[in-house]
Amino acid sequence: MISAVFRARSGSRTIVLEQNDRAGAKLSLTGGGRCNILPSSLDASRFVTSSSRNSLARILRRWPLDEAVRFFSEDAGITLQPEEVTGKVFASADGAAGVTRRLVRMAEDGGASFHYRSKVADLEPLSSGWAVRLAGGGTIRANRVIVATGGRSWPGTGSGGWGFRIAARLGHKIRPVYPALVPLRSSDPAFDGLSGIVVGVVISSVFEGRPFRVEGPLLFTHRGFSGPAVMDASHAVTGVGEGGTPGVLSVCWGGPDEPGWESALLGGKGRVLGLLEKSLPSRLASVLMVKAGLEPSLSFADLDRGRRRALLNALVRFPLPVSGHCGWDEAEVTGGGVALEEVRPDTLESRLHPGLHFAGEVLDAFGPVGGYNLYWAWLSGFTPASAGTSQASAAGRPRLGRRQSPGRGGI
What pLDDT shows up at residue 410? Predict the structure, then answer.
């Protein structure tokens, strides 16, 4: 949608191709429909990619966050509501539905046409431009095509991985794809009674040799673990190739850091569990004591150095017992995708095929929860649509119905 707005504004003949019966199917799921449209601030180091981080940094500079805020609040007339505690920015009034309606109207006012219940079978490069082969027969010719197909997450919205397949067929390197920002499963029965408990944590791990840490709430579920901190760290578990070893998520529980917990344990009196309950839910504190090999009834008088060290490790370096993840249906985004070094950072145009651009989740990058991934969608849609000549094009999901285009334009 954002591509269509900017390409239509430039005077290009713009066709938006959508396989669903409406625009914004995936957008409607964000923030429970409220639409976490942007983050309140941006830390570029929190984006994850297996591609060139230099390429990622150059792409992120194309549309700074303050310019995106200005577009939505002033040009689009959408009231933004920042949440100070979470760092999220929501679209007020009608949420995702309102954002969709506004962007579609802006694109249509600029002359863009939307084609719903449409599907593309293939893209074929021509000596000049592109042939878009329709699933129901027929062909559309376009000077430029923007592939914004999404990834594989939330497949019910139409994200089936088509963009990865066409990019690979056209010779692009596809970094292995995996579910990201996804709840994790556990088969450890010790945590069965903790479902519904939320606790603040710091999770440390390593992804592709690069250490990282995330901070936020962890939610215990009947299947395992969820919440922002777990979602943000899940790629260490899921982003591993076949036969690879999933990363270990090391958890520091509660508010205190390691020196804080150590000081508290050294100066504690009475029952150890009583001290832990000042920072942790009681049931969790009991589980952690058992995991450390201690009885929950233990008193500080019996907490010798060895036991104290075992408990400290359980409090600040606890290996989360993960047995799997909840799959594509619950993953918020897709990790991996078209290698960033194979697109031009100023236009997101393929370095292999002139006139072919990529945007959004099909590219190898994603951010943490909290508006980062919608910002990536807006940014990567704006970038190719705001660059190039007057006959460039914009497309949502590269789909179209059973018609032959009268003349040439953009898709």
Answer: 56
Per DSSP, the chain holds a count of helices (H) and strands (E) of: 12, 19
| Same domain membership, residue 223 and residue 121 | no
Please check whether residue 364 is in contact with residue 338, taking contact to mean a CB–CB distance below 8 angstroms. Answer: yes
Residues 207 and 314 in one domain: yes
pLDDT digit string, tens, across residues 317-336: 999 999 999 999 999 999 99
The boundaries of the domain holding residue 205 are 184-323
* C-alpha–C-alpha distance, residues 265 and 274, integer Å: 11
Mean pLDDT of the chain: 91
Tell whether 128 and 258 lie within a shared domain.
no
Tally of domains within the chain: 2
Q: What's the predicted TM-score (pTM) here?
A: 0.91
Residues 254, 164: one domain? no
How do residues 126-151 score in pLDDT, each as one tens digit? Answer: 999 999 988 888 899 999 999 999 99
Contact between 194 and 287 under an 8 Å Cβ cutoff? The reply is: yes
- Nearest Cα neighbor of 49 from 39, 61, 40, 59 is 59
Do 99 and 123 lie in one domain? The reply is yes
The residue among 313, 252, 307 whose CA lies nearest residue 280 is 252
